[in-house]
Protein 1
Amino acid sequence: MRPNPFKKYLGFVKGSFLDVLAFRVEILAWVLQGVLSVVILVFLWFAIYQQSGGTSINSFTYPEMISYLIMASLTNQWVSNGDTFSGVSRDITRGDIATSLTRPLSYRGRYYAASFGSLIANFVLFFLPLYIISQFVFVYSLGLAWPLWYNVLFYLLAGLLGMTITDSFDFIIAQLGFKTNSLFGIFLMKLALFSFLSGAAIPFSFFPSWAQPWLPYLPFSGLSSTPINLFLGRYSLIEALRSLAVSAGWALVLYLLSSLTNSLMIKHVESVGG
Amino acid sequence: MIEVNHVSKTFSKPYREPGLAGAFRTLFTKKKIITKAVDDISFKVGEGEIVGYIGSNGAGKSTTIKMMTGILTPTSGEILIEGKRPYDHRERKTILQDIGVVFGQRTQLWWDLPLRDSFDLYRDIYGIPQDEYEQRLDYLDRLLGLKPLMLSQVKTLSLGQRMRADLAASLIHNPKILFLDEPTIGLDVLVKEKITEAIRQINRDRHTTIILTTHDMKDIQNLCKRLIIIDGGHLLYDGTLADIKKRFGDIRHIFVLSRDRLDLDEATKAFAGHVTFAMLDDGYLEASYNADEIGADPIYKFLLAKLEIKDLKVDETTLSSIVRKIYEAKSL
């Protein structure tokens, strides 16, 4: 009897989906914090736009800027919210990687499946309701148009690729736990760096002109900038396809890289113990 | 079934000096400390056996178990489980369906979810058909009493409940071999009994081969016919429980509580060394003798003549007293 190779990972998708539900109160607090920081940003940018005099700054009008920032916060909610980093680092400090080797499944695949499960949970539970409210605000209060169906599709696809990118990064970075005890500091550094370089904090057009041409080609753009610009319809079809290809390329490369570090880590565990 | 051939495992750790200056010096040295956790161990385990694998802390038990389950690779030698090496990436895949592992100090259950979800997860991982899965859960429920726990989050279970669940989770795929690394650690007497009874039952019903490490000699006495003792990474003993008892003789212990003092040297002389006397910490006097050499009658008479006795207990050789002797002597 050969078990279906995908079915066994489905259990982890389901498990981590349920896991998110089990922590709904904690995550609700997290969402509130997100909403609060968006409110602060809205006021901040309102002041900036009033001061500037013109209607647009770096090709963003005020409504576009606000929708960008709200979408950045919402995208973060489902794309970059997996448990891989804390899970892997916990397994390393507790030595649980060893025990996971006694079960017939891939350690990397298991965490990817779990991230997929929490992605679905976060999408349904937090992104969707908050997005629907935001969309009404975009249309009726900011005077923006309803999103086009193919832009929504692009957005979802880009978000999925973005999740693969963060998840692989998290998986690789967490393995530094074998070398250092200050993993939490590294995690905070990673968060700051990612939110800056992914365009979640401010759009790429606000960056210095020398940085702007190559920022979209870094893997980080796949987490925020690419999906948000696709959603807002700021890319031409060619640009859209190119940015999706960049994200897909990085997602593939980083996933393979994380699988490689995974097998290196397992070799390490096998020779010196967990 | 399981073959362990001249297996050794060495670990090398960077050499760390104590103190601040030492810590600084450590940064610039490549000195390493090599420890040999397991040194040239060989044994074979046949199908359906229950083997107690014992040794003092740091003797190399867990290292051996980890090598047998494929978590660690031996430095030299070879381990074969049904002819395949568990630590080899390709061969491992075929073995994992056939082994179950419990580490008493770890859990393999999904911490924040109801217990039932963890079992469902393992059902999917091993691809167990639903009807068979339900049957196995029923069977394990009868052995370990799982039904009342199924809806509780794993993190809310007591240690005893969690251990029962962990044991069940390691059996859900009907493994041919079960490795138990200190399965009764920290458990109360009732849970221990439940768990040892379940292990015995599984061995009887399914002919599961079981390798068990423990510090609790009662577990061993209740479960194992065969015993492997290691110390300092070396194999000290591999044989039956009955044999080891025979080798150490049929030692009996008499414990006496009295206000009077007994001259221990004089008492020992009176029996020409056939009886050893010792004062225990709890105030009891212990007289140990080999029942093959001397009867109980003269000892009782001697004690009654010398002491006003408030309490008296008799105990036969316990495995733990033998094992204590072995650990102290580091040899057989």
Protein 2
Amino acid sequence: MKKLARHRLFWPIVALLTLIVVNTIVRPSFISITVKDGQLYGVLIDILRTSAPLMLVALGMTIVIATRGIDLSVGAIMAVSGAVALTIIDASGDPESIATVFVAVIAALCVSLVLGAWNGFLVSVVGIQPIIATLVLMLAGRGVALLITDGFITTVNSAPYSFIATGYLLFLPVAFLIWVAATAVVSLIERRTALGVLTEAVGINPEASRLAGVRARGIIFGAYVTSGLLAGIAGVLYSSNIRAADANASGQFIELYAILAVVLGGTSLMGGKFTIAGTVVGVLIIQTLDKTILFLGVPPAQSPVFFAIVVIVVVIMQSPRLHRWIRGAASSRSRRDSDTTITKEVASR
Amino acid sequence: MSTDTAVSPVVSAESVAPVVEMTGITIRFPGVLALDHVDFALYAGEVHALIGENGAGKSTLIKALTGVYPIDAGTITVGGSGRVFDGTAAAQSAGISTVYQEINLCANLSVGENVMLGHEPRRGGGIDWKATHREAATHLESLGQRIDTRSTLASHSIAIQQLVAIARAMVLDAKVLILDEPTSSLDRDEVERLFRVVRELRSHGVAILFVSHFLDQIYEISDRVTVLRNGALVGEYLIEDLPRAQLVTKMIGRELDELTALSSVSSRAIDRQKAPVLRATGVGRRGQLEPADVSVYEGEVLGIAGLLGSGRTELVRLLYGADRADSGHIELDGAAVRLRSPRQAIEHRIAFSSENRRAEGIIADLTVAENIVLGVQAKRGALRRLRRTEQDALVAEYIEALGVRPANPHMLAGNLSGGNQQKVLLGRWLAMAPELIILDEPTRGIDVGAKADIQRKVAELSENGLSVIFISSELEEVLRIAQRVVVMRDRRTIGELASQYLGIDDLIDYIANKGEGSAA
């Protein structure tokens, strides 16, 4: 039990389960899952589906944060990606053609890749601080998206495009399958190759890594490219869901939620050690909380405060200092029982 | 507690109760027993040295006393009553002040503010700055220091900063002063000045706990020593009852002929007919190093001697491509190469272990195993990951060969002692099978045992054909294992000597006086 409690994912998972339990107590239908027309339905399934954009963005953010960086431009990249895809579909004569949609998605992802590479270039080659380097695109990106859509909110009716965010495959939402696949691919690349450990080395001690011959520049560049690509997929999902390219609303504040998810999952903003599983749990906490607000009927005016309070509680639950303090209090009680010998629990490290 | 009794230390102190008494102190870290039932007593008016190898438990014991680490078992008595501190602040208010090698003061505040912080005289709701600086100056003068108390702390040398820290301890009315490796970055005069202050404080009844790796200094200043080894107490001795050789034997737990057995190394013959493994001609960098010529032959250990700041580190960083040279050229095995980055040097099988272990060597949050394979893995590239079994074999080989303790590959490297971190780094470089390894101060700040291990390893490797460039501030060490010594001063090379018949005094004289006035 003690060992379990020390696992780095213990507290995030406790927080997630608590949210689910509270909702279920209030209304048991929260956890009910039904099958209709070969598709699974339920609040939990909905959470898994709507998690997709944040999950993809947070996944990239995890890798960038591991290198001691940060990527503020993800929301703007989402907007550009959606704008590119929808403009291509809109301009084509046949929005229902799968080939058109395929071309549009590939083009959107290529543009996202280029934007990610631009961030990576600024950070790893030019040497600009990540927060400043990505701020450039964060501010300029939405302008680029507006330029692409000529200042309008482009809307399309394309069944194949809508399928990406709202379709079902093998009982499950396609959007969910996409983020599971992306998470699996990134995890495999990071942990099956040595990329993960080299990324951590660069994040923990860049100079020592350089002297040890690690290609720090390439690794940092790659992290931003990955983040850009994943944000591009998120942008496709977002615009597919609303069938529109809204340059201003697409991915608004998502960079901040992604950072929050990474931190809730237990990856330090100082860089170095990262956990993709933690980020997945972090995103699910945020999405479940989002649903909880709807489900409990918290009035819209109060929902940001409610959100903030829960987040603060979750963050405090994870604080090592609090754990030490609680353990200290528990052991001082036992100290009073045994009279002369002073015993104290070793602090967590 | 009476502080006016003891002037002649030790003897009269014996009759009174100790200021600090620690009994049966045990501290466990995950997977390590850091302290195992250690007893320690400190009396008023004595200088008590705490010594042991790296990883023996000196720092841990100090941190147990000051409450940085909670103890698992044992009792701590300060001034006669049982105490457990929950941090340095609590320890400080109980009269225990600590002066570390890295100064824990506010570098951006003035000297006076640092001395008086939290105890500033007040006048009408605000701080009376005039009185603050006056009092600070008085305290510093009582330590024989006249410094402008309005200058910022950072503008002074480490030595002065330490004295400021001691002055601060006096403001706090410290009964116990802990000096943790205070002398490792001081020069001879500064050490002398520090010791004058320490003797002065001792005569006023302050109990002083002194930690150092320098045996000379321990014999010069201490009254009593406590020796630790592997987290256990070896014993407590009066310094005059313990000859040096015995002290070292107690520290490392084995006889000391290992270091002397190496003396044959420096006279080993080197074949200089073949092209050198590395020949640098006129390599320099503006503002850092004047163009220098260096060559190393197969199986040779080339020492670089010179004072701190003489350009030793700058030279080898250029040879490794860590910094880019703006003049000169380098030949490896007779072929001209360009070394513009560490990666290029690594491609040419050159390895470089930086003098700055913590900032440029160890990756603290990765495990010992990950640190050892890092170089090999980086060379292979991220996509060609070493297989688990290969990694395990490599790591086990170097932990065994270099004697890393504890021999736990899954421990975080940052939790190892300095000497063991150095061994891990040596393992990282050797695992890459270099032809030339550059070791910049590989034995600095580590204990006799680890030092002997590293020197022996270097000697053994060079006998098997590895070329080594060896930098050390300890000239004896350089003379012991290098066949040739390049001497540097003021950012240039001033000469090259064969070390076989060279005495240490000759070398010191050469460093200090050679070519004085006539530029080489």
